[in-house]
Amino acid sequence: MTPISTPTPITGMDLTGFTEREQGVWTDEQGIVLSVHFFPLVPDLPAPLHDTDRLRHDLARSVARAGAGLIEAVPGEVDSVPAVRQLIKVRRPETQHGLVFLGSWTVPKATCSTVVKVQAGERGTTGMREAVVGARVGHENYFRPHPYGPDVQGGLPYHVADLEEWDAEFPDHPLTLVRGALRRIVPTVVLEDRFKAFPPFGPPEDPRRRWFRRR
Fold first, then answer.
1. Is 137 inside any structural domain?
2. Among 25, 125, 164, 204, whose CB has the most other CB atoms within 10 angstroms?
3. Would 206 be classed as within a structural domain?
4. pLDDT in 10s for each residue of the chain, 215 residues
5. Total domain count for the chain?
């Protein structure tokens, strides 16, 4: 565990293999960029974390409108505080080739949020993962409607090559690296007790919805 000093509620996390480049930003030898952020504003998440279907659907539409693609959005916890993980792909800036993959855990509170972000971009020959998986599954099975809503249109297309099941075959692909870094680092994140005690984000869940899900 490495204590960190940044203007965020994050006070520590495992930074093994990372070198600090500036306050709150670290890199490793594989080209991963890790950063932490604090936003003193009401989070711009489109729905409460417990409204999973609406949260995923609206995030996917928002990302598509921005020209990118939401690979997945998964509610969970960071240091026992409700949070949401997002994996997004965007076109590499200022080039027609290659993608950058962004992974983040957003920990929202009523009036602020903190974020752990990991990103890595394709280098050298691009598109190999997509080409190999496409040849393996066939064109007719490669592209799919977005799982968070058939009306999610535009942006980068949803396809099976981004699924986690292919990560083991492409250990050096940036998407694999981003997933692995989030999986390794985020369970070690330590948040300030004061931040953890802030009022939660969004309205409380209707207890009738909890009862319905239990059935």
1. yes
2. 25
3. no
4. 788 878 999 999 999 999 999 999 999 999 999 999 999 999 999 999 999 999 999 999 999 999 999 999 999 999 999 999 999 999 988 776 799 999 999 999 999 999 999 999 998 888 999 999 999 999 899 999 999 998 999 999 999 999 999 999 999 999 999 999 999 999 999 999 999 999 999 875 555 544 444 44
5. 1
For residue 101 the two structure tokens come to 């993959």
Count of CB atoms situated within 10 Å of the CB of 47: 16
Q: Are 154 and 65 in contact (CB under 8 A)?
A: yes
**Cα–Cα separations (whole angstroms), residue 7 to 4, 114, 201:** 10, 10, 21
- Residue 12, domain member (yes or no): yes
Q: Which residue has the tokens 């992974």?
A: 103
Diameter of the chain by CA atoms? Answer: 53
What's the predicted TM-score (pTM) here? Answer: 0.91
Whole-angstrom distance, CA of residue 37 vs CA of residue 114: 6
Quote the domain boundaries for residue 20.
2-201
Residue 78's CATH number:
3.40.1000
Q: How far is CA 14 from CA 3, 80, 88, 168, 186, in A?
A: 9, 17, 23, 23, 8
Residue position matching structure tokens 């249109």: 153
Torsional class of 134: left (φ above 0), alpha (ψ -120 to 50), beta (otherwise): alpha
Provide the residue type at 193 as one letter.
Answer: D
Q: Identify whether 214 is part of a domain.
A: no
